[in-house]
Amino acid sequence: MNKSILVLALVAALGVFESGAYAQKAKSTTPAASAMKCPFDINGNPNYADQVAAAVKAAPNCKAGTAIADACAIGSNIDSQYVGEAYSKCEAEAKLTPAQKTQLGQAKKACDYKYAHAQGSIAVSQHGYCYLDAIKKYVK
User: In the chain, which stretches have pLDDT less than 70?
Assistant: First the structure.
């Protein structure tokens, strides 16, 4: 295993989130995603997560699905529903070599390690975004 690849995976897994008082959102890796506003209003909307998940699923590609998930992140376990959709979309788009599959597995283990003792709704969100960031590196 190449040490630099492992180090890059760990750095990416550990430096993903900004801190905030009540919510944490994933840092955007693209200017378009950071400029996007979530198309759904969470206030009084019991279908918010379902709507965001459907939009992510309907997105044409990983980048678009991830942009929606990033824009709609609220820093709670609800995020896991649409982050999971984004991960699935990116995973289907990524054409991983056996070595890349190994690297992805190591990056996901780094995420698991980082959040193994974390508690609360924000940690669930962060764990999901950590996985999503890991797979996005393999999508062209």
Answer: 1-35
pLDDT attached to residue 120: 92
In a domain, 22, yes or no: no
Measure the CA–CA gap between 118 and 67, rounded to whole angstroms: 26
What is the per-residue pLDDT for 116?
Answer: 92
What pLDDT does residue 23 have?
Answer: 33
Residue 94 lies in a domain: yes
Q: What is the DSSP string of 79-104?
A: HHHHHHHHHHHHHHH----HHHHHHH
Q: Is 42 a member of any domain?
A: yes
Number of structural domains found in the chain: 1
In a domain, 38, yes or no: yes
Helix boundaries (H) for 15-117: 31-35, 48-58, 62-72, 79-93, 98-115
Domain that holds residue 92: 3-15+30-136
**CA gap 130, 77 in Å, rounded:** 13
